Structure formats: structure tokens, C-alpha cells
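Q: What would this complex look like in 3D?
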Amino acid sequence: MRDMPQVLAEVRSLRRQYGAVLALDDVSFSIRSGEVLGFLGPNGAGKTTAMQILTGNLAPTSGEVVVNGHDLLAEPKKAKQAMGYLPEQPPLYREHRVDEFLDYCAALRGIPRRERRAARERSKDRCGLKEVGARLIGNLSKGFQQRVGLAQAIIHAPPVIILDEPTVGLDPIQIREIRALIREFGKDRAVVLSTHILSEVEAVCDHVQIINKGRLVLSDTIANVLRRVRSNTLVVRFRTAPEIAALEKLQGVETVQPVDNGRLRIFHRADVDPTDGVVRLSAERDWGLQEISPEHGSLEQLFVQMTETVPTP
Amino acid sequence: MIWTIARRELRALFMSPLAWSILAIIQLILAFLFLGHLDVYLQVQPRLALIPNAPGITEIIASPVLGNASVLLLLIVPMLSMRLISEERRNRTMTLLFSAPVSMTEIALGKYLGLVLFLLFVVAVTALMPLSLLVGGHLDFGMFAAGLIGLSLLLSAFAAIGLFVSAISPNPTIAGIGTFGILFLFWIADWSSSDSSGPTHRLLRYVSLVRHLEPFLRGVFNSADVAYFVLLSVVFLGLTIRRLDADRLGV
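A: Here is my prediction, written as C-alpha cells for the whole assembly.
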């Protein structure tokens, strides 16, 4: 397979236990070059644990991590050299100046003295930090601090970049800028992005993984996921309360769930469109159909579905 | 890599007002004590001149100043060492080191080296005061050097203990108090026992930091005492590395 992009990071059957709590249970995935992988899950699902294990901040109870061909346990230095990590809370020394801090990070990642300056300038350039090099990190705004965190993660030009909730606490413009940056990194590297913001995944990722209670419940390309979501649900609203059982008997309908404002969500099989049936039934029984639409493509219902019910494969 | 981390530690120290105020206060107190010792010497000097082989200014001024410095630093090292690891952990900056291609040993040694270099600087500045006596007298350089080496070794051991306590503490204040407690216990270990010949007393005497510093101040360079300080440092550095590893294992 010559055209398949190179696998840059691979995680095999990762498990992590905190005492009796199983934070990660048999999680496996891989990331290829040129891919942005969205790691999605509700709070406490194990996203951060997975990121910490991937970056060597936490040891897994069992399982293995291979980054750029180096096993994280056997060759931690080589594996870590190939990764840049921005944790949830950017690890910044508030009392340092931006330039000083980035120089230190460059030195920590083993960039030779002569090349440090160039590496620092390149990384500042990409993250829009040109003007703040001489300022104290502690005095920067949250958005700029986040960018320093990003600059720190990419200073050694790692093939794998791992970002844990990089847009939390930023204003909408900053969010757009950071997302644009992430997409740019995704062109020639592998990016893992953890988030609980669904629109973020839609906006920047090629690949989605949903994690819930420590297990991967979905792993697919964003295109497939969106297609799946878009074609399988209808949202309807009636003036009077309909008989849900009757709706469920329609051909192709799988389940009907109430949503807010008296709306109902009809899940149906991908190959049958029950719209006609719903309209006819409503007219026959005089329910007063007010609204009917195929659900707008969004990850939300899939996410809710995946994280609330036990998925059937 | 060790050097990179040590340099940042030193820099962080000198960027904060803490290091400067500590240096200033140490100088102030030692200058006061130094002048006190000098005064005593000037009073007894006429009588000393009559005694053959009388103690000189090194015994009466220089060594006591170093002894004073060791007690003073017992109080001060915890304030310097407390933030080494616990603060990074609290500010969540430890991630930077853990995800960089550096081993736990390098992290521990880097932080240790940073503090030790600062303390050596303190020793150098302390040494200047007795050296100023050269203007009007002679120092016993062998004895003085032994004292300086002893003080440096003692401080290295302090630093290792401080680093370890910082690694096991959830926040800097607890680390500071904990370090002070441990250092003080090591200091007074031989005070408690009334039976001065029992095995417990002999053991406590051996553990006591003072017992191993005193020979240096008298000008005796004993390799057993050197070994004691080196061993103490190595043990606590080893424990620190283990503690950092445990952090990663999440236990």
C-alpha cells in the first residue's frame, strides 16, 4: 500500500485503572500523517487519561503506545521527541518571557543551540506571537497564553501533535484562529485533538472517535459519520400529542424519541424514508403536523446516542 | 539536559525577589555575627600572644562564621527547596518536563544541581567575609578550605532532602515545613539520649548532621564524613527519582 500515508502513532489495547475505577478499557487506534483525529467524549470519559498515556505523562496499566516507530516504554526519549503536547492547562512558567520560555522548551527537546533561535522564531511566527516575544507570560491574555502553549508544542517540529481541549476559555475569534492553525498542522502531520465541543470536531477533524466511560464507542471518518447522522433521523412536531406506538409501526421507523418543545425525533433505517408515511398518518388521525424535516447534519444526536445508550455494533 | 533544567532553576531563583532577599538577609546576619567574633578576638588577642601555639583568626573567627552559616542555612534551604517540584506540580507545569525527551533522573538531577549551584554561590559569598581578614592577618587556608568543603557538602545534603520533600508534598508550604522538620531532626538527633554510651545513642550520634560537620570546621578532612554527606544526598536523590516515577505510574 504505497499511497497510504504513514502511520505516525499507534495505540494498542490500552487499559488504565485507578484503583477500582477503570478509566480506559481496551482502547486502540492509530493516526496517520495528514490526519486530524478528533477525540470526543463527555467530561470524565477518559479523554485526558488517553492523552496523558499517549504522551508518556501517565503509564498505562497495560497496552502499548508506538510513536513514529518507537515504543513509548522501550524508547521513551525517541518517542517523546516525535511528539508535541498541549495539555488542558498549558504548562507555562508565568515569570518567564515568551522568548525565554520557548528557548528553554527548545533546549529541553534537544534542539542544538545554533538552531534554537530559528526554531523559536518559526514557531512564534506560526502561532502569531511575533509581537509578544519580550512580554512576561503571566501578563498575557488567556488567548495568547494558549498560543504560547501551542508554540511550545510545535517548536521541535514534531510529526505528532497532541492537543487537549485547545480552545477552552477562548473568545470566538481566537477559537477560529486556533482552529485554522490546527487545520494547517494537520496538512503534513498527525494531530490528535481532544474536545467535548462537537462543532469543533466537525470544523477541523478528518476522523472522529467517541469515547465513553473509558471505551471507544465509535471510530470513523467525519464524512461517514455525518452521512450516517444526516440520513437517519427526522424531526417532527404535531399540534396534538401523537401516538408514538403508531409512528413506530410505520415502515422503516426504528424508534421515536421525544425532544424538547414537543418535538419528536424519528430514527429510521437508512434505506427507507418514512416522511410520506408520517404525513399520511398525521392527516388521517388529525394530529396537526406543524413541522417535519430531515435532521440537520450534526454530530450531536450521534454523540448523545453513543454516550447514553449501550451501543450495538 | 540536566544542565538545561539546572539553568532554568537558577534563573527562576534569581528572577524572583526571594533569592535576592535571602542573599541579603544571610549577609546581614553573618556580618553581624562576624563582627561579634572579631570583637571577641580583639579582646583576647593580647593574652593569646603570650601562649605558644595559640589559636589564630581562622579558629576564632573564620570557622565559627562558617558554623553560624550552617545553622542559618538550615532555616533557609527549606524556603528555597520547597518550590522545586511541588510548585511545578501545583501549576501543572510538570507536564512540560514529563512530555519532553528527558528521563526522571535528569529532571531530579537538574533541579538538584540548580539549587546546589545557588547554595555554592551562597557559600562563596559567605567566604568573602573571613577572606577580608587577609588585609590585616593570615588565614590558615587548609583549615578554612576544609570548613568551606564541609559547609558545601552539608548544603548539598540539605538540598537533596529538600528536593525529596518537595517531590512528596502537595504544595510548597508543606514542603517547606516538612524539610525544615527533617533537617532539624537530623541536626539535633544526638541531643535526646541521656545514656551516652548505649547503641541507640551511638547510632543517633552517627546520624546527626552536626557531628559530621564539626571535624571539617576544625580542619579535619575525614573521608568518612564526606561519605556520610554524599550518601545522604544520593539516598534522597534516589528517593526523589522513585517518587517522580510513581507520579507517572499514577499511584
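A: To summarize the key features: Residues 2-249 of chain B form one domain. Chain B touches chain A at residues 1, 4-5, 8, 11-12, 15-16, 91-103, 248-250 (CB under 8 Å).
Q: Very helpful, thank you.
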